[in-house]
Amino acid sequence: MEIFAGLAAVLTDPILIFYVLLAAVVGMVVGAIPGLTASAAIAMLLPITFYMEPLAALAFLYVIGKSGRYGGSIAAILFNTPGTAASAATQLDGYPLSRRGLSSKAMKVATISSVIGDFTGEVLLIVGVGLIAAIALKLGPPELFAVYFAAFVVIGSVIGKSILKGLASAALGVLIQMIGLDPISSEERFTFGNFDLTNGISLVPLMIGIFVLGEVFAQLEVRGKKTEIVDEPGTADSRARNRLTWAEYKPCLPHVVRSSFIGAFIGMLPGLGSAIAAFVAYGEGKRRAKNPEEWGKGALEGVAAPEAANNAVSGPSMAPLLTLGIPGSTIGAILVGVFLIHGIQIGPTLFLTSKELVYSLFAAGLLGIVFYGLIGYYGASFVGRFILKIPTDVLYPVIFLTAFVAAYSSRGNLFDVYVMVAAGFGGWVMRKLDFNPAAFVISFVLAGGAEEAFRQSLLLSDDGALIFITRPVALGFILLGIGAVFFRARSLNR
Amino acid sequence: MISARVNSATVVGGALALFGATAIAASFGINPDPDGGWGARTFPLVGSGALLLLGLLEARKGLGAGAATTRQTTNSLPSVLALLLLSLAYVWVISKLGYLIGTGLAAPLALWLFSIRNPFGMVAAAIVCPAVYHAVFFIGLGVFPPLGEWFDLLDVIQGY
């Protein structure tokens, strides 16, 4: 019932509706620009949202994340370059369709499938999040620490090419979080006598560095590369050819429904994210398809399945963030910054203290899906042609300058800008060496809460660290983490 | 031959292990709790220890691989380093000469690094970028601007 109150709150606030609409457009455009991701846009815009109302700020960034995931499909279909990692699976069938002059049809299928997937994920979130929060409220510090432990290990080991480098990325994130004063004893840690370091490393400049400046460094390597389009979707002939009929979309529906549930399930697991969901859904779709030989050569179902899955991740990935304070994705990690800045404590108590805000956020998410669905269905070709007109050699210097002023604005401190530069270069090096920047950032966000839970557990315990083994739920999560590494190692060795 | 075993995994693993070992040493510099407990040291030590272990495993993997892997060369490294240098110089200039002058200098240089050679465009960027960012962030959003230690254009234009 809370969701209806949330919808009423959102739909009666014209300013909020404007922000959601703006976010739908911004996310779609950013997602469609090859190289730029929704995470980068959110990190860059984060300091601006400090000056907005909490709900408007959260809704704005949340919808950018949703719309950005969808926007990646435009670049994948039109330019043969996935706008985001998640849309790489869409490219497999989207671009062949584009080569056959059916880019608009492919984009319509992507739009409808994304909307259905996202809507399914959001509804599952709305229905299930209260239940998860109620269970989370019963968890004590040992269980909570075990959940954190499992999250560290899963995030570090499951994504990326190398388990060792993924786990090392997570360990680095933990170490960087330790810089500053110990929150309990106020002892200085890793400050090396530097006063600026006593305040610790701030989340916002770190993320702007990794996701925005790091991308500018990466774009230097591909500067001058022209984006090409094989199908001009705006002509009259093309419009007639690209009309999507119910008979054409009907075979996609079973794939969309299945993929939506695959995406929603993967979304709930911290760290896995849209790209994995899209490829799992694509693989499963092809396996069950009546026409598997057409997949990869331009099957509409091959566009529908990954798009539904990658957008279905969006809602459920908020569940661990809102109920346990564990961000399931990089976008979730960035949203932690918004909650913190507005003084909102995330975790199970969020549903006791800020229930209205949470459900209004979900309602804004639903409205955002409607907006990007409508804009995408009727305007994706226009967005594609608009992207072609953006000179990337000018765009990235502008993003470079924006990153600096955004990093400074978060706390009005030039030290943060130095942190952003270091994180940007570090992020670029990490990508070059196949480390995992997402695991680094998520671990950075998790480390504070994990340490608090760990130390509280030891205070509760008469047997020291054995408390994590004697409590069954805690032991279960610890075994889950160890099991994830074991299975991942086995799958890599095959 | 030892040189044949020095591949990227060995180097990366060695660097991680060194970083981890240094962090362990630094962790022991953190004062223990008044009751002698490891409280504030525990997490830094666990993180450092994990990094050392993972670094050693990565280096071992590299040594086990035997022959050196193909070295990844990139033609863009000088450009990336130039952008890093520009980034550091930009922050330093802001701290000494203020945001407007710093951005006025950094904007055309950033465009130049991205292969823009149009002199009119670079001059326009030097003027428009500082003005737009100043208007949006320091006037519009009310963020207090970073003032130059030696000189600041805001003193001359009276804060506008």
UniProtKB/TrEMBL annotation, chain A:
Annotated coiled-coil positions are: none
Q: Cross-referenced InterPro entries, in alphabetical order? A: DUF112_TM (IPR002823)
Q: Which Pfam families match?
A: TctA
Keyword field:
Membrane, Transmembrane, Transmembrane helix
Q: Please report the stretch or stretches of sequence annotated as the DUF112 domain.
A: 17-442
Query: Where do the TM regions start and end?
Result: 7-33, 39-64, 109-137, 143-160, 197-218, 260-282, 324-345, 357-380, 386-407, 465-487
PANTHER family per UniProt: TRICARBOXYLIC TRANSPORT PROTEIN (PTHR35342:SF5)
Q: What is this protein called?
A: DUF112 domain-containing protein
Record organism: Pelagibius litoralis
From TrEMBL, chain B:
Q: Where are the bilayer-spanning segments?
A: 41-57, 77-93, 99-116, 123-144
Q: Which UniProt keywords apply?
A: Membrane, Transmembrane, Transmembrane helix
Give the InterPro entries listed for this entry.
Answer: DUF1468
What residue stretches are annotated with the DUF1468 domain?
11-144
Matches recorded under Pfam families:
TctB
The name on file for this protein is Tripartite tricarboxylate transporter TctB family protein
